[in-house]
Amino acid sequence: MLHLRVISPPADTDRVVELLTVEAGATNLVVFPGAARQPAGDVVMCDVVREAGNPVLAKLRAMKLHERGSIAIENVDVSLSRSAQRAADAAPGLAADAVVWDEIEQKTGEETDLSGTYLLMLGIATIIAGIGVLLDQPILIVGAMVVGPEFGPLAALCVGIVRARARTMRRALTALGVGFPIAIAATIVNTWLLDLLGLVDKGMLLRDRPLTDFIWQPDAFSWIVGFFAGIAGMLSLTSSKAGPLIGVLISVTTVPAAANIAAALAYGVWHEAWGSTVQLFLNLAAIVVAGVLTLLVQRWWWRRRV
User: Where in this chain does the entry annotate a coiled-coil region (predicted)?
Assistant: First the structure.
């Protein structure tokens, strides 16, 4: 269930209240006349089941309330209310299947910022994975996947494509296109430093690495794993069930490949660097294709149900 807090110009409040009153999926309506100061206006609050979220928000946006007032959305984790249950029963479809587009656009839009934190986290993840590649230690690869933050920009790119948001797509591509090269460069430098300290050497990369060789040897499973990771990631986002494990699932196909690129470039093992590069781009493409298809299917299915 969603909680809406609307700041409405007084002239529009009656229309807002009428809209929310007749909407079967809205309940717990509260009005505070003249309570808002910046922007000035009336405060209207209500709960809306996720199934009714898109039509309600579309009507509020059509009234330009997001420009002349304010619309805030929060998720309600628990609602003990018979009225709320009746609203859920009256709305078509199931809450788990509902995609609230304004919500996911806001979420993913925040993940496209090319911030210092994002670059640092991606760099640390790739460095850890680079050490795991040289030591042939899957536990380090898994640790790196926990740290990797690339799920946000990838999800934003998928949403931007489906919603035709050119600005979101540009920002997501910038975050990915700048983030990965910087992370790879940092991992190359780290590998050189470790080599100077005598902690790693080229032979560690050239030896048999049965536990991590798959990272630079792309095959059909590279696409399959990336594709299903993209589906799982997008479903977790649209159903508001995104968690750290989904980020790990996305990173299993990206961060290790970037790390192997760095290690191979650091030691001039060009065939392995090329294989890792193909693996990285293949997985990124699979995730984006799967994410876009998932969103399109969800939109089609929801419109059909409604």
Answer: none
